[in-house]
Amino acid sequence: MEIREPEPDETGRIREVADSAMTTSYGLSPARIDAIADEQFADDTLEGRLDDQSSVLLVGEADVDGGESTIAGVVSGSVDGEWGEVSWLLVDPEHRGRGLGTSLFEAATEALRDGGAERIRATVLEANTEGHQWVERFDLVREGERSIELADESVVSAVYADPDADGDLEEVAIEEPSTDEDVDFPEAALEDGTPVVTTDDGDEAFVERDEEESGTAAPFYAAYADEGRADQFGYYCSNCGSLDVEMDEMERLECSNCANSHAERSKESYDRSHL
Question: How many other CB atoms are found less than 10 A from the CB of residue 103?
């Protein structure tokens, strides 16, 4: 296993690793994954990071059959003042379980400190269903959330930082998670504090605030066909107000109207990710 800076002609392989890793670990549609990979891991984008003195871009090689090696993971970050941030860490699913993710993270944080960073933080997209618990293994604590633009859409990114770091985290524009009072329920009318949505058939669906599932753009909530919450209608997307939310056999939710999505985090998937 070798951690190093990539060569300019290796950007194509990095793009392949990014696409494969996100397809396995991110609760996003294939079209969204392709759009993000095209934006964040395009040849010119990666070449720009290699030329940027404030950026860190490292790859990890793993052995394959025949004694050869291939790029199996990539980590990207940058230095901004006293902060060093790890923004992407992706490992090819075929090469997980060998400690490559840990080696990449440690190498990246060391490079960020060498570049002048005094404190380290890491950002994890809410859609990365396997990354949140994993990053906590480095004693980083979730401090808040950001709404960022990726491939022309707004997504939620969690911010993890060293709990012993001095200073005010507000200087890095962290947004605290919203409370029930802050949540907007588009297309819904409040009846005694309960959001009620009218279905396409003219019936009412009652949104249960206490049954929330995270989403890449905004939370999902269980919706019921009756006030007693005995008959679940489905799920309500608080990003656009739609009840047209589908769940697949892996318990992944996706709004057909706005592509807001959620994937159930499982300990099994977390245990085999990256490490």
Answer: 17
Residues 6+ apart with CB under 8 A from 233: 199, 205, 223, 224, 225, 243
Phi and psi torsions of 262, nearest 5°: -145, 140
Answer whether 216's CB lies under 8 Å from 262's CB: yes
Q: Per the structure block, which two tokens stand in for 99?
A: 């400690």
Backbone angles phi, psi at 44, to 5 degrees: -70, -30
- Residue among 221, 226, 211 at smallest CA distance from 242: 221
Neighbours of 216 (CB within 10 A): 26
Classify residue 231 by its DSSP letter. Answer: S
Looking at residue 149, its pLDDT comes to 85
> How far is the CA of 223 from the CAs of 113, 246, 260, in angstroms?
48, 13, 16
The closest of 82, 42, 91, 251 to 168, measured between CA atoms, is: 82
Tell me the C-alpha to C-alpha distance, in Å, between residue 88 and each of 59, 75, 83, 104: 11, 5, 16, 10
Residue 232 CB contacts under 8 Å (≥ 6 apart), including other chains: 222, 223, 224, 225
Please state the three-class secondary structure of 30-62 as a single string: HHHHHHHHHHHCCHHHHHHHHHCCCEEEEEEEE
Q: What is the pTM of this model?
A: 0.63
Tokens of 68: 């050869």
Whole-Å CA distances, 237 to 41, 156, 219: 30, 15, 7
- The whole-angstrom separation of Cα 73 and Cα 87 is 14
CA 29 to chain centre: 13
Give per-residue pLDDT as tens, 74-133: 999 999 999 999 999 999 998 888 899 999 999 999 999 999 999 999 999 988 877 888
pLDDT per residue as tens digits for the range 2-46 = 999 999 999 999 999 999 999 988 877 888 889 999 999 999 999
Contact 3, 111 (CB under 8 A): no
